[in-house]
Write a structure and sequence with these properties.
Length: 257
């Protein structure tokens, strides 16, 4: 039975999701339910298909088979822009910001887009108090108020990742996808990133790809293990850690975390 749009207890439901590039299968008949309000991680070895799965959910890649539903509504075949408008936003494994614009301007672009406002000679953006106030609020949430007028390209790597998370917030989406948000960070930067992600995902649904198991165990309610394009197991972090099949396929010594 299919959930009616807007009435689903799941923010995301993947049913028989398949993706092949030519004759090469990458994602194979994946079923996955992401409950509304939960923080869920997808883990797996390199080449397991994690980023491909994210690209299917966010509309960057078309499905080869199956269906994806957002709040009970099928989003299969929709463009990334339309999916975003329906309440899903994502960050990328490689930082995706406007380096030659200020931090404030990077965020304000997203706020303007959400309100359907475009730049123009007869639209004095700096006087749009509501837009600027919303932008300031997001700056504060991601801890970048002091860097508001600096070029985004001058931020540290961890600050750029924080900015990208802020850009997902500008859309007002209630489902957030983060692709390896702490990759390349020091232990101290990772700790700050965990606190930031926990704060900004409060009351939202979070789906993340992450290699750092300490991040997964600190943040997530449930974990799915993707191996060779298949979901091997979905359970709590503790249960996943104790799962012998998961240990053999992926976690190895990390299973003791």
């Amino acid at each position: 039975m299919t959930d009616a749009p807007g009435n689903s207890p799941y923010s995301l439901r993947l049913s028989g999701v398949t993706k092949a590039f030519g004759s090469i299968p990458v994602i194979q008949d994946v079923d996955l339910d992401i409950r509304a309000g939960e923080r869920h991680a997808v883990i797996g070895p390199n080449g397991a298909g994690k980023s491909t799965l994210f690209n299917l959910i966010s509309g960057l890649f078309p499905l080869s088979g199956g269906d994806i539903r957002l709040h009970g509504r099928s989003i299969a075949g929709l463009s990334p822009h339309r999916i975003n408008r329906l309440g899903l936003a994502r960050s990328f494994q490689i930082s995706n910001i406007f380096h030659r614009m200020s931090v404030f301007e990077n965020l304000r672009i997203g706020v303007l887009a959400r309100h359907g406002i475009r730049f123009g000679l007869f639209r004095p953006v700096d006087r749009m108090r509501r837009i600027n106030d919303e932008t300031d609020a997001i700056l504060a949430r991601v801890g970048l108020t002091a860097r508001a007028h600096d070029l985004a390209g001058d931020l540290t790597y961890s600050e750029q990742r924080a900015l990208e998370i802020g850009m997902t917030l500008t859309t007002g989406a209630d489902v957030i996808l983060l692709d390896e948000p702490t990759a390349g960070m020091s232990r101290e930067e990772t700790a700050r990133a965990i606190d930031l992600i926990r704060t900004v995902s409060e009351g939202k649904t979070l789906l993340m790809v992450e290699h750092d198991m300490s991040v997964v165990f600190s943040l997530c309610d449930r974990v799915s293990v993707l191996v060779y394009g298949n979901i091997l197991a979905t359970d709590t972090p503790a249960a996943i850690s104790a799962n012998r099949a998961v240990q053999e396929a992926y976690l190895g010594e990390e299973a003791d975390i």
